[in-house]
Specification:
By secondary structure, the protein is an alpha/beta fold. The protein contains six helices and seven strands, in the order βαββββαβααααβ.
């Protein structure tokens, strides 16, 4: 992992951008990383564009502001690409992951983007595993695969602890989310 990995999450209210950034932060913190996980608040409401951020480092994080030059951009709602330049400020060599059933090459054309881009049908995975479109959990699996910050087994072990606390009285939700992460890790695609 680079000295500090900065991630910008784009989604809509209710899709779990903030929750995904916080879950990732908790897992990284448990792995003795220094982290920041925070949303950008505005007049949020269900369906409105939302941005969340992560900073993950082996060293103390002393900067406290929005991330304007991310290493990774994660897009939970592909319709946002029509109105927001999700690649704006992306560092040279930065990566993009988009929740879509379209191939990566098609998304690169739509965005006029020549960099490293990955796609994953996070909505489809969560609908099959959870019965509803909750793209945030599968996107975590894609982030782990694309960044390589954890092995899949290590991440699954650590995220299970978080889910066991969050969904203590809903074991079926824990297993559904675990399946979402595993499938996304295996199914994320690039060109």
């Amino acid at each position: 992992m680079a000295q500090m990995l900065e991630i910008r999450w784009h989604g809509r209210g209710g899709q779990g951008s903030k929750t995904a950034s916080i879950l990732l932060g908790k897992v990284c913190s448990a792995a003795d990383k220094y982290i920041q996980a925070f949303p950008e608040y505005g007049p949020e409401r269900m369906g409105a564009p939302v941005i969340a951020y992560n900073r993950i480092s082996d060293h103390r994080v002393t900067v406290h502001c929005q991330i304007e030059e991310p290493d990774l951009v994660v897009v939970l709602d592909p319709t946002l690409t029509a109105t927001i330049n999700v690649t704006e400020g992306l560092k040279e060599g930065g990566k993009v992951i988009i929740n879509t059933d379209l191939p990566a090459g098609k998304m690169k054309e739509k965005l006029n983007f020549n960099g490293e881009l990955y796609t994953i049908d996070a909505n489809g995975i969560s609908e099959k595993e959870l019965g509803k479109a909750f793209p945030n959990t599968p996107m975590l699996g894609a982030v782990i695969k694309v960044t390589g910050m954890f092995t899949m087994d290590k991440f699954m072990e650590m995220i299970r602890k978080e889910f066991s606390t969050k969904f203590a009285h809903k074991p079926e939700v824990i297993e559904g989310n675990m399946n979402c992460i595993r499938r996304a890790f295996e199914e994320v695609k690039s060109e």
